[in-house]
Amino acid sequence: MKRLKNLWTAACRRPFRAFYALGVCLLALTLAGNFALDQLLYAAGALKEKTVTLENTEQYTLVNMERTGDGLVSTTGDAQLLLNPGTLVRRLRLVARYEGGAVCEKDLYYHLPAFGYTSRLRVWPTAREDGSWTYTLPRFAGQGLRLDLADSAGVTVNLTAIVLNERMPWQEYFIPSAWQLFWLAVLPGLAGCAVTLKREKGEDE
User: Please, which domain of life does this record's source organism belong to (predicted)?
Assistant: First the structure.
């Protein structure tokens, strides 16, 4: 008990150091928890590795797109692929090539009950060195997914595969995202400022 009291006293004297240390601990626990939870979901069969190609027509629906051989061509500026994966999706990797070097947003929308597809339920991709794009969805995302492949008419997309729930190397679980690093930099500092101001105000009184 005395040791805890001493730690609390030291934290009050140096609130910034204490809050940043707490933030680092919480981030480490979050990253480790994500790793452990994914392994449990894989083991339980809730997350299933799956590959969808253009031949698996029962697992997708084209909207404003036409199939031409091994590729897809957008007919309007709102070309969509509605995916019916039949499993919970945590990660999605798009393996495709755009003819002529066309640049498109490639947004992924997920579906929640009573919401539908809105800009608030959207995920942006991370480009990989091999030319594919990876999306990481929140754990509460539904199974209905909408992939916007082109934002103008006449774009040809040579779609090789959509890979679902591909296993990540274990070490990648422990690399913080840009948002996590941002909040780690900001929130402990704000909390430290609040504690310092409150303490100074109490001393003035």
Answer: Bacteria
- Asked if 155 and 81 count as a contact pair (C-beta separation under 8 A), the reply is no
Which amino acid, 130?
Answer: D
What is the total count of domains within the chain? 1
- Whole-prediction pTM: 0.78
Helices 15-44 & 178-204, crossing angle to 10 degrees? 150
pLDDT digits (tens, 9 = 90+) for 92-129: 999 999 987 667 878 999 887 777 788 888 999 988 88
User: Is 137 within the bounds of a domain?
Assistant: yes
| Domain assignment of residue 67, given as a range | 49-169
pLDDT digits (tens, 9 = 90+) for 69-97: 778 999 998 999 999 888 889 999 999 99
**Which CATH number goes with the domain that contains 72?**
2.60.120.260
